């Protein structure tokens, strides 16, 4: 199964790097706000680690404005093993797990009265 990257963890790490660089360059919040073209509130949210509403690309651009070259690499998820069986065999296997009482609830007229089942129109027959 493909796992999505933990974006909140990535944002937190990028924010920590921004705070570290602001500290190394001895910038006050006001100076950082001016240099990074951010509002004072945004600088304070980054300092406090409240970066949930920031986009990763925006945080990277902030780092680049602090003369920190950021390289982002994405590793593709490993491919899952493909089931070599025909799809009808896989469907039959899944269908065999459906309890009898649930199968009895399925309409026997297939799609002939789909408007009835979806929208409540009168049945055709």
Give a brief rundown of this model.
With 125 residues, the protein is mainly α.
Which SSEs are present, and which pair or pack?
Layout lengths: L6 H18 L4 H8 L3 H9 L7 H10 L21 H9 L4 H4 L10 H6 L6
List keywords for this structure.
single chain, 125 residues, mainly alpha, 434 Repressor (Amino-terminal Domain), 2 domains, 51% helix, elongated
Average of the residue pLDDT scores: 85
CATH topology of the largest domain: 434 Repressor (Amino-terminal Domain)
Count of helical regions:
7
Low-confidence stretches: none
Distance between the termini: 45 Å
The top-level CATH class of the largest domain is: Mainly Alpha
Description:
The protein has 2 domains: 7-65, 434 Repressor (Amino-terminal Domain) (Orthogonal Bundle), CATH 1.10.260; 87-119, no CATH class. It contains 7 helices and no strands. The model has no long low-confidence stretch (mean pLDDT 85). With 125 residues, the chain is mainly α. Helices cover 51% and strands 0% of the residues.
